[in-house]
Amino acid sequence: MKGRVGTPWVAAIALLGSGATASYVVQRLIDAGSEPPIGTVLAQAHIPYYWRMAVALLHGLVLAALSLGLPEAWRGRLLHAAPIWVPALCLLTLLTMLAVP
Amino acid sequence: MSPQLFALLERLHGHTAVLGLAVLLHPVIALARGRVLGKGGRWSAALAAFLIALPSVAGWLLYPHYREQIKPVLVAENLSVALAFESKEHLAFACLCLTLSGVAVALAAPQHGPRVALPLLASAWICGVVTGGLGVFVASLS
User: Fold this and answer.
1) Nearest residue of A to residue B114 by CA position?
2) Mapped to the 3 state alphabet, what secondary structure does B63-94 carry?
3) Which of chain B's residues have a Cβ under 8 Å away from the Cβ of A27?
4) Interchain CB distance below 8 Å, B97 and A5
5) Helix (H) and strand (E) counts for chain A?
6) What phi and psi values does residue A8 have, to the nearest 5 degrees?
7) What's the start-to-end Cα distance of chain B, in Å?
8) What is the spatial distance between Cα B78 and Cα B71, in angstroms, rounded to a whole number?
9) Cβ separation of A4 and B105 shorter than 8 Å?
10) Is A82 left (phi over 0), alpha (psi -120 to 50) or beta?
11) Which residues does chain A have within 8 Å of residue B127's beta carbon, measured at their own beta carbons?
12) B110/A101 Cβ within 8 A
C-alpha cells in the first residue's frame, strides 16, 4: 500500500515525536541537577512544566526539519532500526522519569 | 477555576485517558500481526490520538490549580504521592508525543506501519499504562 507521504516525511514525523520525548527527559534531568528540593519553592513566576514541553516540542521540530536534509540511505537505516531505538528510548524514559520525578 | 469545573476536568482527564489507552491497543495489536491498518484500524488510531490528546489538554488546564492549591499540601503531607504525580506528568508527555507521531505515521504512510508506527504506538501505550497506574495511585491516596 502506498502512503500519502514519502520516506523523508515518515522519518521526520518519527523524529518529531521521539525527539520531543528525548528532549523532555534531558531537560528534566538537567533541571533536577540544579533545582532546589521539592517543597522549598512554592511559587515561581513561570511554570517549568509548560516551558519544558514547549522547548521539547521545538527541539522535536528542529530535529524533524534537520532529518529532511539527511541522505536517503541514512533515513532508510533510521527507519529500519526504529524497532530498536524507539523501545530503547521508551525504556530509558520510563526508568529515568520514575527515578527522577 | 471553580471546584466544580476542577472536579469535572479531573474526571474527564482520567476517564478519557483510560479510554484512549484501551482504543490504542487495537492498532497496536493489528500492527503487531504485521498487517497494514484497515479502515477500522485507521479509525481506532485516529480516535486513540484524540482520546489521548484530550486528557493531556485537560491536564494542562488543571496543572496551575494543582500547583497552587494541591501540590503544597501533598508535598507537606505525602511526599511519595507528590513525586508519583510528577513522574506521571513526565510520562504523560512522552505518551502524547509518541502516540501522535505513531498515529501520524500509521495514517499518512501505512506501508511503514508495522516497522515504524508499531514501536512508536507500543511505546506510547506502555508509557500510558504506567502513567495511568501512577494516576490511580495518586487519586487513591490524595
Assistant:
1) A83
2) HHHHHHHHHHHHHHHCHHHHHHHHHHHHHHHH
3) none
4) no
5) 4, 0
6) -60, -40
7) 19
8) 10
9) no
10) alpha
11) 90, 93-94
12) no
Encode pLDDT of B13-56 as tens digits: 999 999 999 999 999 999 999 888 999 999 999 999 999 999 99
Q: Do the chains contact at B109 and A86, CB–CB below 8 Å?
A: no
- Measured in angstroms, the CA of B15 and the nearest CA of chain A are apart by 22
B50 contacts: CB under 8 Å, gap ≥ 6: B20
**Could you tell me the pTM of the whole model?**
0.94
**Contact yes or no for B109 and A10 at CB 8 A:** yes
Residue from the list A2, A16, A98 with its beta carbon closest to the beta carbon of B101: A16
DSSP state of B109: -
- The beta strands (E) that lie in A1-101 are given as none
Q: CA dist A69 to A38, B3, B27, B69, Å?
A: 42, 50, 31, 47
Q: pLDDT of B50-106, one tens digit each? A: 999 999 999 999 999 888 888 888 888 999 999 999 999 999 999 999 999 999 999
Q: What is the ipTM of this complex?
A: 0.93
Q: Could you identify the residue written with the cell 508506527?
A: B117
DSSP state of B142: -
The 3-state DSSP composition of chain B as helix, strand, coil percent (nearest 5) reads 90, 0, 10
pLDDT single digits (tens) A35-56:
777 666 556 667 889 999 999 9
